[in-house]
Hints:
Elements: H1 4-27, H2 30-43, E1 85-86, H3 87-104, H4 112-129, E2 135-140, H5 143-148, E3 162-166, H6 172-188, H7 194-213, H8 218-221, H9 223-226, H10 237-251, H11 254-263, H12 277-296, E4 301-304, E5 307-309, H13 311-326, H14 350-353, H15 370-374, H16 404-407, H17 411-424
Antiparallel strand pairs: 1-2, 2-3, 4-5
Helix pairs in contact: 1-13, 2-17, 3-4, 3-6, 3-17, 4-6, 6-7, 6-10, 7-10, 10-11, 12-13, 12-17, 13-17
Amino acid sequence: MCSNLVSRVLILAWLLAIATAQTFASQNNYKDALSKCLLFFEGQRSGKLPPSQRLTWRKDSALKDGSDIGRDLVGGYYDAGDNVKFNFPMAFTTTMLSWSVLEFGNSMGADHVHALEAIRWGTDYFLKATSVPDSVVGAVGDPNGDHTCWQRPEDMDTPRTSYVVTKEKPGSEVSAEIAAALAASSMVFKDSDKGYSALLLKRSIEVFEFADKYKGSYGDNIGSGVCPFYCDFSGYMDELVWGAAWLYKATNTPDYWNYVRNNIVGGLLFKPGGSNLQHTTSLSFLLSVYAGYMKANNKVIDCGNNVVVTPAKLVDFTKGQVDYILGKNPLGMSYMVGFGQKFPQKIHHRGSVIPSIDQHPQHIECHGGDEYFKSNSPNPNLLTGAIVGGPAENDTFEDSRSNVAQSEPTTYINAPFVGVLAALL
């Protein structure tokens, strides 16, 4: 942050933020954005939907998940615009939602209950995915079969294969990521549901022990179910450290802190691939949290050359990122579906693209949805609150279902944004 180049970028961003904040703030309602951001997760639900389901164009789906291995794996979230349950990003999503509530839950108002519901939808599933000792379910649904078809989740007839890591075929990264999600969520429910909180923490400890004791990459052992979609290219130690850090936070046990200190390393911040808003929302969340800690401890960062970073400047910077996502950008477009007057209409998302069962009750075959994918018409079902991959480096955006990197929403783009919006409130 203290390099000359970055300092100049920050200074420019702050000046722009100051110049435009007042007019733009009046045009956007962060509370409305937060409500929509959380509503999105209901559109990603898998399994038996509850009576409280608000996105009613979604229906029950994947009610036999886990039957191939004699287990109940119904529930959880579809990660993006497909119908696969990838547990690696789902666990990160659940952790980030939990962290958002832990840091900024008091600012969420009426949406606090919806945040808890979103977390619990993930944790209920993860309790199922970790119910057998020394094994963890890493994914459900054959991704290659799924990606061949364009079907509503309610119509799926592609293989719902369960991919499981074991002590013979370990998967430390997915197991440790799930352990982190369970530990973080145990803290969320500590006051409101002590029994559930205790169960989550107990399971987290067990899963982390499994992840650490039987080390190995899940890409090597269940790669056909997760690669190349969510391969782990940086090794599994960062997830183990992440899991230990959350367990230390949840238990205050020194052994977990010692684990973090003994195993953490520096390394390059690398942001590969498309869907760049996943990086924007995550980094904005971290800056929001760090600004809070700086303010609580009366700290600033002196970068030299008369450049001092204060908590207020970090908040201004993250606000600029949020405002860009919500419409303060060269295209005047909100990248959150349903927010503002102009937003993506043709997102890459099966359930949103194909008419709902209410409108088209007949079963749609594997390629029956192709005509809707190829259509130039807007998606018939509004996936309210979904944040898409976002613009290209030159601020252009192609509103096209075929441009997956720009038009596909994911749970792990939205999850950090929940906390950022709550922080601004």
